[in-house]
Every structure is written in C-alpha cells, then in structure tokens.
Amino acid sequence: MRGIEEPKLGEECGVFGMYDLDGNDVASSIYYGLFALQHRGQESCGIAVSRTDGPPRNSNVCKGMGLVNEVFNAENLEKMAGDIGVGHVRYSTAGASVAENTQPLVLNYIKGTLSMAHNGNLVNALELRNELEMNGAIFQTSIDSEVIAYLIARERLKTGKVEEAVKNAMVKLKGAYSLVVASPRKLIGARDPFGFRPLCIGKRDNAYVLSSESCALDTVGAEFIRDVEPGEIVTITQDGIKSDKSLTQAKAAKCIFEYIYFARPDSYIDGISVNSSRITAGRILAQTHPVDADIVVGVPESGNAAAMGYAMESGIPYGIAFVKNSYVGRTFIKPKQSARESSVRVKLNALREVVRGKRVVMIDDSIVRGTTSARIVKMIKDAGASEVHVRISSPPFLYPCYFGTDVPSSDQLIAYNHSVEQICEMIGADSLGYLDIERLSELIDGDKGYCNACFSGNYPVEPPKEDIRGDFEK
C-alpha cells in the first residue's frame, strides 16, 4: 500500500458518455458521473459536448488539471450546450501530468468532430505512433489515447460509418482500452477483446449512458442495463442501441485488481459485486492465515470490506481503527525531509482507544514498496497495540502492469526481492499473510477469465520490449 509520499496505485482513468435522445443538455449529468468516478483519477478531467441537430463542428470543450469540482463550476457548465458528450477523469504518474494530456480528446476533421475518452494502456502505442508519424501525422500529446483517436479518424475516411472506423482501428490495437466516442450523431462504446477495463451501459428516461463503473449510473439516476462485453462495440443513435460482437474472443482477461482495489465498493463489474469480492478476499485470508487476535481493522478504503470478511469468517470483532482525512487532495504539500511529522498521518490517524492493549489484525489491499505499510504498522503500535498482524487482500506484486495499472517495474517491488518473512520484519509487523494466488478466482465467483499478470507474470498480451509507460499513459 502506498500513501502520500509513495502514492497509492493509480488506475489510469474513468470514462463517461451520455446521449439524450430528447435533445436535453447532458453536461451537468456528465459532471456528476465524473464526480462518481473521481476515485479512478485525480490529476485532470474534462467534458466535451455537442448538439446532434447542429452543424458537424459544434463541440464545446472544458478540461483542465485538478479534481472535477476544481475544474468545473455552475458558470462553465451552463455554457456547455449539447445533447451528446463524453467525460474523463485521469490519473498519471509524475512527468506525464501536464495540461496537454487532459481528455477527452477532440479532433476536428473532414467528417466533423470526434470526441473520445480512453481508459487503459496500449502495448503497441510506440509502434503505431511511429508508423503514423512516418505518414505525416502530427501529435499534440504524449498519450497513447491520441494514437487511438487518430486511427479512428483515419479509418473513418475509408468507411461509411464511424462504428466501422472504430472497429477497423481496434484490429490494430494491442492492450487495454475501454473507449467512449462521440461523433456528430452517435455515441459509441468499445471494449478491448480481453476486457481488461470495465464499461457498462445505463438508461435514464430517453437518454443512454456509458460509464466505467455502475456507481456513476446510480449517481445520475440511470438504470443499469448491462456491461459492454469484451470485444464488443455498442452504437447509440436515435434508433437505440446496436451491437457488434465480431471482435469478441473465447478468452477474456479482466483486471482482477478492479475488484481488489480500483473500483468503488458499490459498483458491479461484469455482474460481480465489488464489495462482495472484497468480503470474500477477507474470508479467504481468515481461512489461510488465521491468528489469535482481539480486533480486525481495515486500512481505508478498500481494506475495510476485506476486514469485515476476515471478521465474519474468524469470529474476531471488527473495528474502525483509522480516521481518514477526506480533504487531502492532489494539492497536498509534502513536508520536508527534516520534518518529524509523517505524511501518512496527514491522511490517516489511529484511534488509540480502539487499539490500545489489543492484538490487531490489519487488512490492506496491497504492499508495493513497503514504506507506507511500515508507517501504518508503527502508527498502530504507537497508539498502544500490543501486536499487529498484517493481512493483504491480494497476492504479492512481482511484475509490472502494462494494461493501465501503475504497478512499477519489478526492482521497485518489495516482494520481488524479499521473502514474506523479510517483508514482515521490514514493515515491523508481528506476522504477515497474503491472499493465495490460486484462490483469486473465488473473488469473481470462479470466473477464470481474468488477468493476474502483476502477480504471476503471465501476460495475456505480450508486453512491449521496452517500458514506455512513462511516455504513454492516460
């Protein structure tokens, strides 16, 4: 687990799209949808809308660095007239967090305006970009999303329909992508054939919605219809929804870490409750790594449900041991090296009366480098806990992710070079147990179609020969 100086694992973004067939403006609904997806990215955000009954080029775009409520206000939303649009929240690592990389991307070309939001990461981005540049393409950003947008625009010149252009572009893409695309008259959603990243469909009155997670549908009062299937392209027009599943394949590879950490607990992804998945993970930890203790606590937020599962299975009482400061955002200024205050304490603090004199089982979703885990263990012991037994609701991270999760290279992962016993000693815990990789499928009701490459090294798509993730990120 990584805290403020060592940021939590970053999921590359969240996407949201809406088309109101009655012609009502959608910008405010997209705003609330993005607000519900804020956990998927806090670096930048944006909305692009247009009117389907207007000229081909009538897009209205607002985007910038910061949180949704920092970039948007009542005044700029009111100016965004349009019955079709897409929105985006973005996470990035240091170096790629710049204004020109904000999304949605809006292209004005011979067929009109194309607005696109992308969640995921391509493994052949550099190869495609070089090929396009050799044919005269000029790129304005350093993100692979622009490669996708350019491919769609180029393919659109050869096809009669924009959904066919999306399909032709998808054939050339390798890696993870969930796309929401708005053309002058259509809203399109597409998911890569492995289904790495989630995407679902909702409906409110006579308006259709596409979203990374179902929790955003709830926020805007839309009814969940279904998930977009891996490899599927859905096209929303005045005639309703059309589906193209010709690119689907037998083997899916949905990201298991969506269930462990990324997604909001009130979301359902591919028919599975995220909250239930985390409770299951906690139950498994109680079965495989039992310990005599007085209380089970979770590290907010994703550790809470797993802690509840551990308590339910073990019979050890569940407690809340941490107070979280919800107002610490991206603008938090880290204290100087000489400062005695731990930056972790700015975001979390332990409740002394809950842990004093007790043997504590502490549940967290992951350990990356280990520095923050050590600080949290020390925090609980400083608050008076007699023992701290750490349980992790995922297997050890051993390999980097190239599909939209900010898992660093192996040499930066504590589990790659250290045994569980060594890690336990390094973080100051009395014992340490990870989720068994063989039991991961139980988190999603036995479904074997998931990706666990960051734990196993078994990549469903061959990774790039060089690590270009610092250059191509959402």
TrEMBL record:
EC identifiers of the protein: 2.4.2.14
Catalytic activity: 5-phospho-beta-D-ribosylamine + L-glutamate + diphosphate = 5-phospho-alpha-D-ribose 1-diphosphate + L-glutamine + H2O
Functional pathway: Purine metabolism; IMP biosynthesis via de novo pathway; N(1)-(5-phospho-D-ribosyl)glycinamide from 5-phospho-alpha-D-ribose 1-diphosphate: step 1/2
Stretches assigned to the Glutamine amidotransferase type-2 domain: 13-239
Entry binding sites for Mg(2+): S302, D364, D365
Cofactor binding note: Binds 1 Mg(2+) ion per subunit.
Catalytic residues in the record: C13 (nucleophile)
Positions of [4Fe-4S] cluster binding: C255, C401, C451, C454
Cofactor(s) named in the record: Mg(2+); [4Fe-4S] cluster
InterPro entries to which the protein is assigned, alphabetical: GATase_2_dom (IPR017932), Ntn_hydrolases_N (IPR029055), PRTase-like (IPR029057), PRTase_dom (IPR000836), PurF (IPR005854), PurF_N (IPR035584)
Known function: Catalyzes the formation of phosphoribosylamine from phosphoribosylpyrophosphate (PRPP) and glutamine.
Alphabetized HAMAP family for the sequence: PurF (MF_01931)
Similarity annotation: In the C-terminal section; belongs to the purine/pyrimidine phosphoribosyltransferase family.
NCBIfam families found in the cross-reference section: purF
Protein name: Amidophosphoribosyltransferase
Organism of derivation: Butyribacter intestini
Primary gene name: purF
